[in-house]
Automatic annotation (TrEMBL):
PANTHER family: STAGE 0 SPORULATION PROTEIN A HOMOLOG, TRANSCRIPTIONAL REGULATOR-RELATED. The modification 4-aspartylphosphate is found at residue 55. This is Response regulator transcription factor. It comes from Flavobacterium flavipigmentatum. Residues 5-122 form the Response regulatory domain.
Amino acid sequence: MDNINVLIIEDTPVESDALVKVLTENNYNVVGVAANYNDALKLFYQNTIDIVIIDVFLDGKPDGITFAETINIVPNGLKPFVFLTSSKDRQIFERAKLTKPFSFLLKPFNELEILYALEMAVEKFYGQANVFHSEDQNTVVSNDSLFIKKNKVLKKVQVEDIVYIEVEDRYCNIITEVEKFVILISLTKIIQLLDATKFCQTHRNYIVNISKIEEIIVNDNLVILKGNHKVTLSDKYKDFVKNFRILR
């Protein structure tokens, strides 16, 4: 499990320091701060980035927009981003709008506005139609991660870190090696979103990460997973066991 990785592109140290403080206090991981276009691109390609906060003007030039235009067109470069600016120039706004930012915030930034903008950007970019809500959590399912809001903190759970998933009524328990999450989604729906070559169903109530399987005890209808987790193996789902070492 990882915190969400944020790249900050801001050339005013006081403002970049304030952004870093707000984000780290709210459990975001700031992977770097860049003050110019070239440094921003270097950090962008050297790190795993989930979202970017971009100052429109860098050293008096709209290089923040140029950066957004660049990542929109390079292969695998597209990431959600939020613009910050003190400019009220309509032409600059129109050019920035063409890059399709998820928010456009005026300086001085408001802490809650930044946090809400990041959450909305993650939801819209990664979740698209796969967004699920419960009373205390929001969950976005992307190809390789779950973005889960837990105790007012947005966390990123790598799909590969999931040990197994257990259904309870309309909810699913997402079990990793270090933490448990509860989200509002049916088992049928979530299995459609997972890679069938990496996850398999062992019971009507369980989906397991194949890479986390350590033993299969067919006679006891039991699958042993990493961390000594145990799930039920029903007759209906036994076909996949031929690929594993079996204890009888």
